[in-house]
């Protein structure tokens, strides 16, 4: 059985941490979607400029292509809007989405504490305004990101196993 999972949510939600742990527990490859952004996207975000849909489209297609190219893979990717998830599903139709839901204050604190990341805390509001939670007809699960990494990963793995 193929396992293609996107751990999604706004910056600071724990996508990379949960995604890497989940991949390890499933014997899957882990890729941080941030590493797939073109340089121009990274420059814009680092300068405090939110990406627009045109900026995101090529990146989302690459995320989908990478997902489709592997049998067992977990990708950390914001995938904030349904149309973004649709682009990913267009490339990798069997992708399972795990949304990390977390309070704004916790996100802000996490973003302020990060010193090695290009995404400034100033972009948190634009991320939260863009966020569209998973809908009932989307293959996925919503997990409380305040849970410890092991618990969040176990919930996601169990949901993937139930498909």
From TrEMBL:
GO terms for molecular function: ATP binding; gluconokinase activity. One of its GO terms (biological process) is D-gluconate metabolic process. InterPro entries: P-loop_NTPase, Shikimate/glucono_kinase, Therm_gnt_kin. Signal peptide: none annotated. It catalyses: D-gluconate + ATP = 6-phospho-D-gluconate + ADP + H(+). Its EC number is 2.7.1.12. PANTHER family: GLUCONOKINASE-RELATED. This is Gluconokinase. It comes from Microbacterium oxydans. The lineage of its organism: Bacteria, Bacillati, Actinomycetota, Actinomycetes, Micrococcales.
